[in-house]
Design a protein that fits this description.
The protein contains four helices and twelve strands. By secondary structure, the protein is α+β, with helices and mostly antiparallel strands. The strands form three sheets. Strands 1, 3, 4, 5, 8, 9, 10 and 11 form an eight-stranded mixed beta sheet that branches. The chain has a two-stranded antiparallel sheet with strand order 2-12. It has a two-stranded antiparallel ribbon with strand order 6-7. A hairpin with a 5-residue loop joins strand 4 and strand 5. The longest helix is centred in the first third of the chain and has 14 residues, at 7-20. The protein is globular, with a radius of gyration of 18 Å. The two termini are 24 Å apart.
């Protein structure tokens, strides 16, 4: 699951493509800039779990588009925070690990219309994009849904079953995904853990409900 943190960065490339057809309202030589605010789990919640902060990325995506025969630059800033329960193998060969990712990406509204494709994607489409960007995740099936409180609002969290490669083994995992809108951004949370690690599931729920933005 080490590649999952790149999922949102890959999806955001679609933002620039979609925006190209609607960006005629932008004029002048300055780039059109869209910046997301940072998001992540609270330090208090992390301290109550086995998760450890791993990587905090802020990345600009740049694209030059042609509008009415003129070139325009578009810049998008998004943030990805990754947490991990380090993998371990017990005496029976079972693998325990956990991955939690929080990403924020701007709605990028142009003329009052949100251009970011993440806002239109279903949970199924988001997890399929995750699988496309991670060669060690396959056999994805939707399992269930639940409601958790994320950023003060009731949010649907969808759980998928899948097979992931971890520590040289093929491990049945659950991958949970949610998306909320907050203050002009989309905030996406993704949690993954082995299906037989019952103690990790409540920790993932704690991480979801502690998201700050």
């Amino acid at each position: 699951m080490r590649h999952s943190r790149h999922f949102v960065l890959a999806v955001l490339v679609g933002l620039l493509v979609v925006s190209a057809g609607c960006i005629g309202v932008l004029t002048g030589s300055e780039p059109a800039v869209f910046e997301a605010s940072e998001a992540g789990a609270s330090e208090q919640a992390v301290s109550q779990t086995d998760f450890e902060p791993r990587e905090d990325q802020s990345q600009w995506l740049n694209r030059t588009v042609t509008v009415a025969g003129q070139e325009r630059d578009v810049r998008v800033l998004n943030h990805v925070q990754t947490y991990e329960i380090p993998p371990s193998v017990d005496a029976t060969g079972g693998v325990t690990f956990g991955m939690f990712v929080v990403a924020s990406t701007p709605e990028a509204s142009v003329a009052g219309q949100a251009m970011n494709p993440i806002g239109r994607m279903s949970h199924q489409e988001m997890i399929q994009q995750l699988a496309a960007d991670s060669a060690n995740l396959r056999d994805i099936e939707r399992e269930s849904t639940k409601e958790l409180t994320v950023l003060g609002e009731s949010a649907e969290v969808v759980r998928f079953s899948a097979i992931a490669e971890q520590s040289g083994q093929e491990v049945p995992v659950y991958v949970e995904v949610t998306r909320v809108q907050d203050d002009g951004d989309f905030v996406v949370g993704i949690g993954a853990y082995p299906q037989d690690s019952a103690d990790v599931e409540p920790q993932v729920e704690t991480m979801f409900e502690s998201i700050q933005h």
